[in-house]
Hints:
two-stranded antiparallel ribbon
Amino acid sequence: MAYTIAGLPVEPFKPFFGLPDEELAxxxxxxxxxxxxxxxxxxxxxxxxxxxxxxxxxxxVAIDDEIIEWLQRRERRKGRADxxxxxxxxxxx
Length: 93
């Protein structure tokens, strides 16, 4: 079976980029600064953040619906209208 590993879409995360930490906390998001070359994976780029890079740690359940909807739209654009994306980490059913 063929499959593709892809990063999460960045679009659902964009509204959080400029928010202060207090606002992020309301959505269960924490701003983190990488202090080592490994151990801070970016789920969008599928790469480790570099030391000093800041990223957001997101409780994926908080934005799950947005990601599922984005994946479903992407599949429809690719002509895979019958693909079913479920809530199990966005895997196809």
